[in-house]
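User: Before I run my own analysis I want an independent prediction to cross-check against. Here's the chain; please return only the structure tokens and, at the end, one sentence I can use as a sanity check.
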Amino acid sequence: MAMDKGAAAGKPYGSELDLRKLRVLVELDRRGTVSAVAAALHLTPSAVSQQLAGLAKELGVPLTEPVGRRLRLTGAAKVVLRHAEEIFESIERLHRALAEHGSGEHGEVSVSGFGTTLAPLILPAAGILNRRLPGLRTTLAEVDPPVSFELLELGRTDVVIAVESPAAPALDARFDKRPLMTEVFDVALPDDHPLAQAPSLTLGDLADEAWIFATVGMCQEIPLAACAAAGFTPQATHVIGDWDATFAAVRQGLGICLVPRLARRSSQPGVTVRRFDDAPWRRVFAAVRPGSAEVPQIEAVLEALGEAARDAESELDGASAS
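Assistant: Structure tokens:
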């Protein structure tokens, strides 16, 4: 049995398959004559014959046989044509996928944020993207700074949601930062507290209260600094790191606390959350690696986060006014 030298040496047929030559074979099957193929592909008949001969050599099988002045496709050519259709369909799908990826319609973006941003900010943004760009997959993780920024620098997450703090400073050349919203702190009181329905309220009015503080971070530092600015040192009776438990303690009359508005969704019956004069605030921002904000997928995520932040800020501001 005769064997092609390339196959005998272990070289697979078509390892250097030229798709342009394969297209010539497809056109010959469609149009029937070399001259018709030449006219369709803007080639000379001689060039068409050379392309067919080259493809036969690459594949190691005869693809045509002469019948009078015409060429007839061999059985091997029919096998090649069946696979050629799949090949060209696959290439077309590849081009469509690349176009969709280039427009931001497909791909994957990972987003990391601290706990209170998930329900009111990150998840609504993911919902916007799911409706607007269903082919764009977002993966979400609850991670606090500075770990979230370490992941961002290492490329293990694409977008970080944080607030300005020593762990996430406003200016850091390693990252591009996009402002999302200004988050105000309100005060949480038991429903039956004498000041829960007071016409006006200042932080100084609460100087003699028992206070509940977060365990660490900005939710502890900002209230402490606000109390100091109001001229008193708060009586810290409880230190709790969970907002559900904090609101439960307020409901039981164990103390009051300052709560950032993104966390007020954890509020429970029996607790009044209201605004007060000269309330402290903090800036919430999104951070990405330099230059990546122009990547269509990440740009789409940032736009959705901005939209969700505007909605959250409007909703939470309205809720605090009521």
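Sanity check: The mean pLDDT is 85.
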